[in-house]
Amino acid sequence: MTNRKTLDPESSPKAAYGAHLRRMRDERGWSQEEVATRSSYSGQHISAVETARKSPSLPFSVTMDEVFGTKGSEDSFERQWHRTRPGPLLEGFPEYVANERRAVELRLYEIGIIPGLLQTPGYARCLADSNVRRGMITPERAERRVKFLAQRQEAMEGSRPPMRLVVMDESCIRRQVGGSEVMADQLARLLDVAEQPNTVLQIAPFTGGEQRALDLPLNLLTLPDMSVIAYAESQIRGHIERHTDSVLMLHRAYHQLQADALPQSASVAMIREARKGYL
Description:
2 domains; 6 strands; alpha/beta; six-stranded mixed sheet; 279 residues; 48% helix; Endonuclease, Chain A
C-alpha cells in the first residue's frame, strides 16, 4: 500500500492509540472508509486519529468499541483512550500543554481563581483538596494534578521564558481560597510575578460591568511561527481552536479586554491592598 504513514506507538499515548486503531482495522481487513461507514465519523476523522494528527475522544472510543465489538475487552478503545490522558486532566488539555511549552507568548484571562501558572503550591493544593471533598476526584488524582501544575510552572522558567500577558477578573483576588495564610502567600506571589520582565499583569475590575469584552476564561498562545491558537474549557472538556477567523475574533476581544483593564501599576496597588486583609 502506497503513502501509508509509519506509526511509532512508543512516541506518545496518542500515537499508541492510532497504532491500535490501525491494527484492529488490519486484522479485519477494513479500510478507513469502511470503518467510517460503520460509524458516525468520516474517513478523514478516522485517518487523523490513526496518524495521531487528532486526539481521540471518549465518544469516539465508545463508538469504535461498538464498531469493532471490543467493549470491555483487553482491546477496548475506551481502555486505550484512558491511557492517552494524564490522569486528572480534561480532554484537550494535554494538547494545549504541549503547545504551551513551545509558545513565545501567552495571553491568559481567568475568572474566579488565580491562573494555574501563577498559583502557589498551597493555593493549588486547596483547590485540589476541595475537589476531593466533593467527591469529584480521588486523593491520588489530586496529588497528580498538583504535581503536574508544578511541572508546567517549571517548564516556563527556562533561559528564554515566554512573554506572559495576564488579565484576571477582580474576583480572582477577592475570592478566598484556603485560609488567610494561603491567600496572603498567593497575593504576594502575584506581586512578585508582576515585577518579572516577561510578565504584564492586569486586573479587570468589577466596575467594567457589561463592557467586559470576554465573559469566559480564555488562553491564547503565540507559537514560534507566530501562529496563534486559542484554548477554552467547559466543565467536562477543553477545546483548542485554530481556525483563523475564530482565533482572530478572540484575539481582538482580548486586546479590548486589556485596554479596559486597570494598568499594571493600578492592578498591583489593588492586589497589595487586598493582601492587607489577610495579614
